Amino acid sequence: MKPVISVSNLGKRYGRVVAVDDVSLEVFEGEIFGLIGPNGAGKTTTMECVEGNRVPEKGTISVLGLDPRRDANALRQRIGVQQQEAHLQKRIKVWEAVDLWRSLYTRVVDTDALLARLGLEAKRNAWFMTLSGGQKQRLFIALALIHEPEVVFLDELTTGLDPQARRTIWDLVTGIRDRGTTVFLTTHLMEEAERLCDRVAIIEHGRLIEVGTPDELVRKHCPEQTVVFTSDDADVAARMQTLGVVERAEGSAGTYTIRGAGDDFVTEVINFIAREGIRVRGFRTEMPTLEDVFLKLTGHGIRD
Amino acid sequence: MQPRFLRGFWKLTWVETKIFTREPMGFVGTLVMPVVLFIVLGRAFGSAKPVNMTQVEIPFNAAILAAVLIAISAVQSLVAIISIYREGGILKRLRATPLSPVTILGAHVVVKLIFTVMSLALLLLAGRRLFPGVMQVNVFSFTVAVLLSTLSILSLGFVIASVVPTARFAGLVSGATLYPMLALSGLFFPVDRLPRALKALAYLLPTTHAVALLDGVWDGSGWGAHWVDVAALLVLFAAYTALSTKVFRWE
Questions:
Q1: pLDDT tens column, A175-198
Q2: Which residues share a beta bridge with A25?
Q3: What is the mean pLDDT of residues B5-32?
Q4: What is the CATH number of the domain that holds A278?
Q5: How many CB atoms lie within 10 A of CB A67?
Q6: Is B98 close to A76, i.e. CB distance below 8 A?
Q7: What ipTM was reported for this prediction?
Q8: Is residue A258 domain-shared with residue A204, that is, in the same domain?
Q9: CATH number at residue A90
Q10: Which terminus of chain B, N or C, has fewer Cβ atoms within 10 Å?
Q11: Residue A92 · residue A127 · CB < 8 Å
């Protein structure tokens, strides 16, 4: 796969505050790449430098083979941008915004179909200020897609939205990727990153600390898995402890918590239960998430 | 190939014009208020059939005051809009499109000039009806002079818009800057009688030259006699524009 974005040794300070410190990354064609980290970690600054909307202090950036600052005009025709907490004129109508954006690009899509796809056709004549949070974000997605860009930048797309609106947006974003557009997004929501991203980069205090697929990162940093089951059989914990994959088995008649690691852990536990004829009333697995990875790597939760 | 600043320029200007008319306060305020003030002042001072508003009944020319107020309210409205757009991230969003910075701000200037002309037309119509025989001014010359004055004061408006920290302060700061400028403008008493320091300040303000030019056009003394004021308005326009490109903040 060829990278559509390459960043090497990017650095940016605001006064004496280091916002981005020596960040290098690559985004490949057709993937959803997520820059994840807490607020103030340097996500937006990194993204804005890549878009060409902020001047970096150090490092080199290439997007679609272009320099975002030097070739800004050419690049703007080929990338789509959605900014964090963006607004339009309060009293601009949806169709007026779409019409204005249309006039700025050399190649444009069928905007009626685009508005329909984003569920905005009924809001064509509505003022921007009357739209709900989810509708505003969908309009910004429409504006970012109006010229069929090759790369779309989405900055904290679902912040402040209710769970239902968030899910709608997630489906739209995977739709964008499925149509062949590369997506570069930032989020501080680990669930969002896990649901959407093909690859993620974890950033903290302006530095990248890890890059990989969500699955890879979980396996690498948080291999421990947990099985919890309820059974009236006595003494199960001690018997389970003999299994090689089990690190710790706890509990007595009632609820048992079994911890272990490895790809075969859950299978081995199930096989053991079957083999021993243990009567089980409830069974669930607890898998580590990106949230756990983040906690492990940084020593604190993302919402701190 | 069209120049880059024309990309989206007329569309943006048209959209901003429509948006402005949807804001009742701003729309009515900038369009009608100076005209209302003119009528009130004209009636108060010149109710007994004003023969010559410039010399006899009124201690100052109400029409010129109203014309300068039209320009100032345009500037105030511009400062408010720019600061609201900046605070709301609208400027930042527009800047991330292929629109050039000149286009984004230039569209607002054109909108303000359009409404200046409309307000001025209202003023002249009201004047002709209410004070017949008084408004003998050359409409075209007066309009051009008001537009030039507005443009020059607008460029100072961009400097103000650059330093105003939040939209909440915009009205306050622009009001506190623009209206005192009227006191030094020569409209109420001659600039020559000001103390030396204030006199120097007065000549750095576009309003002073605007009043001098408008006075001249009103008297019918023509552009040739006031080329110094025209040049001063243009020089100040260039200087304030240059300054605002240095200090203007988009976010």
A1: 999 999 999 999 999 999 999 999
A2: A7
A3: 88
A4: 3.30.70
A5: 14
A6: yes
A7: 0.86
A8: no
A9: 3.40.50.300
A10: N
A11: yes
